[in-house]
Amino acid sequence: MSFLTTVLAETAVLAEVEHAALPMPTFVYGLIGLVLFAALAAVVWSYRDVANRHQAKAKAYADAHGGARSGH
């Protein structure tokens, strides 16, 4: 039996198998993904401008360690 006939035989068997129904409508999966990405975006958004909140500490560190940091 060649590879092609084996693949065709398997696809014919798989085509006859009845698939189980999904537990919820398909658009709900998209909504879950949208809500998940929105929540992750909110977490990322909450970290914006964090470095600028501590300018006094950054300046004190730079002064104590020889001025501005090199371009690492």
TrEMBL record:
Descriptive protein name: 4-hydroxybenzoate polyprenyltransferase
Alphabetical keyword list: Membrane, Transmembrane, Transmembrane helix
Transmembrane segments: 25-47
Keyword Transmembrane helix found: yes
